[in-house]
Amino acid sequence: MTDQGQPAWRAKQVMDWLYLKRVDSFEEMSNLPKTLRNQLADSFELHPLKVITIQKSQDGTVKFLFGLTDGHAIETVIMRHQYGISVCVTTQVGCRIGCTFCASTLGGLKRNLTAGEIVAQVVMAQKHLDSTNERVRSVVVMGSGEPFENYDATMHFIRIINDSSGLHIGQRHITVSTSGVVPNIYRFADENWQVGLAISLHAPNQDLRSSLMPINRRYPLAELLDACWYYLEKTGRRLTFEYALIGGKNDQDEHAHELGKLLQGMNCLVNLIPVNYVPERNYTRTPRKQIFKFKRILESYQVNTTIRREHGHDIDAACGQLRAKHSQLIQT
């Protein structure tokens, strides 16, 4: 505002219109001078996302496919939990990490999202919830893409949604997930925030993890664990390790014992995730009985373990699935 020759307090007015009143145009910002409203409309895109598709699950999960101004598409998911409503946001169009069990990486990375495009996902989700007087309580940065390869925009996004003049979502209600970009785990620890960190682990040893997650060849498991220990010592916060169980690949008893020994003594939670079926991959789900056995083995090493509750199993709720279908339709 000051750069535009306006008093600084105009910024608070704009924030109020954007994040509290959630208006659809600059013209509706009635306490701003007409000339300023016109200037804002000429300079900025208020709605960088357009709804292409909305899918609704029987369990209350809502998945959006949003179109961007350059023709690309991204996904955002609303999930309902006992503790409230969370939104899962995307930070990149596609992904270059190459995890073999994930649909997001199909087609590779197209580009990073701007901070505004990430924020807009939460705003659009909240506007969808306004009709039922519900509120976004938490945000997980676990959608398509690798947040720590779009680090600066992701951090800017967190500052905006956490700001008391923005969406005012508490830091403890925000979690960022990374596949293991080690240098930025150190940077994130040094942010001195209360934002949660989740590590996509998915294997208990170097060779297996490298076969599932090519990023492990660049940042080996030992280096990743060193960064995790640094985070724990720096922040005092508990880490979450995400572990996708893939039938016959990483879900056997010996894998559970190896993982238990690896994480024993660490202030962490292991979140077991039955792998989602992706047509392009030939992976099968771990039998229910083996999932619970895997959990019991980890707990025998005093490693806190949960099994992720599935959301939107009757729709394309896994990262990248809806976007992949949309891309195929466009190509055909």
UniProtKB/TrEMBL annotation:
Known cofactor(s): [4Fe-4S] cluster
Cofactor, free-text remark: Binds 1 [4Fe-4S] cluster. The cluster is coordinated with 3 cysteines and an exchangeable S-adenosyl-L-methionine.
Catalyzed reactions per annotation: adenosine(2503) in 23S rRNA + 2 reduced [2Fe-2S]-[ferredoxin] + 2 S-adenosyl-L-methionine = 2-methyladenosine(2503) in 23S rRNA + 5'-deoxyadenosine + L-methionine + 2 oxidized [2Fe-2S]-[ferredoxin] + S-adenosyl-L-homocysteine; adenosine(37) in tRNA + 2 reduced [2Fe-2S]-[ferredoxin] + 2 S-adenosyl-L-methionine = 2-methyladenosine(37) in tRNA + 5'-deoxyadenosine + L-methionine + 2 oxidized [2Fe-2S]-[ferredoxin] + S-adenosyl-L-homocysteine
GO biological process: rRNA base methylation; tRNA methylation
Compartment(s): Cytoplasm
Keyword annotations: 4Fe-4S, Cytoplasm, Disulfide bond, Iron, Iron-sulfur, Metal-binding, Methyltransferase, rRNA processing, S-adenosyl-L-methionine, Transferase, tRNA processing
EC number: 2.1.1.192
Annotated positions binding S-adenosyl-L-methionine: G145, E146, S177, S200, L201, H202, N276
An example molecular function term from Gene Ontology annotations: rRNA binding
Record InterPro entries: Aldolase_TIM, Methyltransferase_A, RlmN_N, RNA_MTrfase_RlmN, rRNA_lsu_MTrfase_RlmN/Cfr, rSAM, rSAM_sf
UniProt domain Radical SAM core: residue ranges: 81-314
Pfam family, one: Radical_SAM
tRNA processing as UniProt keyword: yes
Active site annotation, chain numbering: E75, C319
Gene Ontology CC: cytoplasm
Positions bound to [4Fe-4S] cluster: C95, C99, C102
Enzyme class (EC, first level): transferase
Top-level taxon of origin: Bacteria
Miscellaneous section: Reaction proceeds by a ping-pong mechanism involving intermediate methylation of a conserved cysteine residue.
Family membership noted in the UniProt record: Belongs to the radical SAM superfamily. RlmN family.
Job of this protein: Specifically methylates position 2 of adenine 2503 in 23S rRNA and position 2 of adenine 37 in tRNAs.
The protein's name in its UniProt record: Probable dual-specificity RNA methyltransferase RlmN
Lineage: Bacteria, Bacillati, Bacillota, Bacilli, Bacillales
Encoding gene, per UniProt annotation: rlmN
